[in-house]
Amino acid sequence: MSSMLPLLALLPLPLEIKYSARSRSIRLKLLDHKIIVSGPPHVSEAKLFAFVEEKKSWINAHVTQKKQRDLHYPLAWPQNLEPLVSLPFLGKQLVFGFSQVSEKPLLFFEETQILLTHFMPFNPKLAADALIQGYLKQATDLVNQFCAHYCPQIGLWPSGLKVKYQKSLYGSLGSNNTLHLNWLLITAPLFVFEYVVVHELSHLKHRNHGPRFWAQVAKLMPNYTEAENWLRQWGPCFKLPPFMQET
Ligand SMILES: [Zn+2]
Question: What is the whole-number distance in angstroms between the Cα of residue 199 and the centre of ligand 1?
Fold first, then answer.
């Protein structure tokens, strides 16, 4: 155990050890705030530490790369919600405005700003609630528009729509043909959001990722690889805003 402290001190993030009866080999997982090393119960802690030690330069390189990417991400959320911060919406940063003119909180998405009106003094919790409802509505409306455009071309329709936060998925098509989409897509440029919807709708016809599936995607959206490239570059930066709870 005495070798633990110097090792931890050199890691860029805290290390967590996990044992799982189902795991067959030692694995390493890098999360935003920690590193998890996991393995089967019979493996000693010393062996897990040795594994981490061996991968240390890989860990450092990845964490540095992630920090750099987050730093350059053009659509990041502000730390706090207050008037005049910038909020990402459809690939742009809009200014968040607040005005005390309406009895109920109302949210308006405009060309250069997102405006919240409410007769109360500014309240960050109420504002965050209004904001997330507004984002969810905008995202849902947009998906419905995409469906109205693309479903007749595919000849098939999803059985339902669920727009919500998903930790590691952009979208998916359930076995019952319900379309699930991550609302954070509304922060990305329109063509990226559109591509994810086209991708999932194409699964109505082809469940796999075979050549016929990709031909279908390309037929609906010939330049879809641009969106894939965007997601490859920036998708890992999709995050819930620090001032919002999971929805
Ligand atoms: Zn797919």
Answer: 6
